[in-house]
Amino acid sequence: MTSGLSSADFAIRLDTTADETEAVLEKLLSDAPLPDEIARPRRLTDAMRYSSLGGGKRLRPFLVVESSAVFGVPREAALLAGAALECIHCYSLIHDDLPAMDNSDLRRGRPTLHKTTDDATAILAGDGLLTLAFDIITRDEVHDDPAVRLLLTRALARAAGIGGMVGGQLLDLAGEGRFGDRGPVDVARVQQMKTGALLRFGCIAGALLGQASQKDYQALDAYGRALGEAFQIADDLLDVESDAAALGKPTGADAALGKTTFVTQLGIDGAKKRVRDLLAKADEALSVFGSRGDVLRAAAHFVANRKN
Amino acid sequence: MTSGLSSADFAIRLDTTADETEAVLEKLLSDAPLPDEIARPRRLTDAMRYSSLGGGKRLRPFLVVESSAVFGVPREAALLAGAALECIHCYSLIHDDLPAMDNSDLRRGRPTLHKTTDDATAILAGDGLLTLAFDIITRDEVHDDPAVRLLLTRALARAAGIGGMVGGQLLDLAGEGRFGDRGPVDVARVQQMKTGALLRFGCIAGALLGQASQKDYQALDAYGRALGEAFQIADDLLDVESDAAALGKPTGADAALGKTTFVTQLGIDGAKKRVRDLLAKADEALSVFGSRGDVLRAAAHFVANRKN
């Protein structure tokens, strides 16, 4: 690892933020109504809690928190923005797992939400988490300046929307031949939209909250794009090289679908080489921050070399 | 009608706003990417267009436009906020129509989206419209003051969320016995959440955009609540008294499900009496605006007496 942070220190930091994120989400997902709300139905909040509490590395909130730390943004504010991002991530997993989409029974080693409840509850829990994210990200506690919160809110909507994550999921299904002939698949474009857009948002969130210079914003943007691609290639490699117990979900799914991935395109060695190049890119982007970039540097290496 | 506006004049006004809303939505739902987006997939924008263009009374945008007109808010700004609200409404129809939810084949006299495409595309088109709403409502053109746009954004998230529309849909399904014993059904609560929250948002949106006094805000809030309940009772009455051709969707659906509605609770005559009381309430709430409330007064009467 090229950063000044040991793997063990990084792991502690990641765990700490995951615990804090869990506590924030726990509070946000109570069934107590907010002002302007009628009582939230318990069945719905239970479903949302099932799919968003009790697990996960919380990588996206971690990126928000650590990109914010570069600019001295208060941790509580970053955690709240991170929780909003995590709500979007969790909703996307719920909807992606539905029988009408990827039809997955297992997620993080547990039955998926629609298996423990039903498809209707799962659809609504996803809709609820997506909507809640925009309730959270607009709150006063996220930033004193409403103009900053607005920028952040719009960036989140763009990252999650049809030119980002939602569009990427559609392209991913199209690439599996779900809507007829699959045609040529642009793996990089699918990655940038489906998984890259939210990860990139996590990285630029700190720059937005910290009202960073254009140069610093662009550095985090470049870092976030490299990290996002490395994340997806690592994912494709895990699907080939890992086993279901370690991964917490079935492996070999891509091959079973005859799916085009970074691994089918570049081969295993080529994919690993590409990850190394991306890590060099990420390091270079962060160089402008000096030692303030250490944790983010470690995060890119962690993402690229993770085991699940 | 107690207002100073004839039915014919009201109908022209409603049509004009519907046309303008259509034009705004048409622009927003192109497949041209926005800044911070990669290209939007055509299949997805086509699906979103299918379900949000070419029809509908556009009642919710109309309420935004007319509540805004009371305070002299520029029409272009109100139309944009109205389009965001309409995106939420259209997404909710797409998801509600899914086989996993209400399993409806017909909507506005046309096949529902999942019938013309597939469930996956319909889920994603709904997610895309929901997310796009928050992209739209945060735009600079909605209001000069970011603090006002934030208030509006958060109010929209609350209205659409688990303490509003999404929660109401879950309660509605629960009331059909979809999750086991149906238990006692609180018809008024389901209405306030499922259909009332968005209609109410349309009515208070003008007060928020116009930075109205607390007193004027509360007047529109009271008006919006009365209009929302009248809307739902009229809906329940139409399900009993109308025919499918006039309604553009099957009638008698509530009875077939053995559903508790305002009509089963109050009887047809009782329901009609309740609508008259609600119209008096709406009129009274608007009295503070004098003749500036004429169009909104006519809107309540239109909603209560509509034929589809």
TrEMBL record, chains A, B:
Record keywords, A-Z: Isoprene biosynthesis, Magnesium, Metal-binding, Transferase
Cofactor(s) required, per the database record: Mg(2+)
GO BP terms in the entry: terpenoid biosynthetic process
Cited InterPro entries: Isoprenoid_synthase_dom_sf, Polyprenyl_synt, Polyprenyl_synt_CS, Prenyl_diphosphate_synthase
Metal-binding found in the keyword field: yes
Coiled coil feature spans: none
Database matches in PROSITE patterns: POLYPRENYL_SYNTHASE_1, POLYPRENYL_SYNTHASE_2
Record's keyword annotation contains Transferase: yes
Sample GO molecular function, one term: prenyltransferase activity
Pfam families: polyprenyl_synt (PF00348)
A single GO cellular-component term on record: cytoplasm
Family: Belongs to the FPP/GGPP synthase family.
Name of the protein this chain belongs to: Probable farnesyl diphosphate synthase
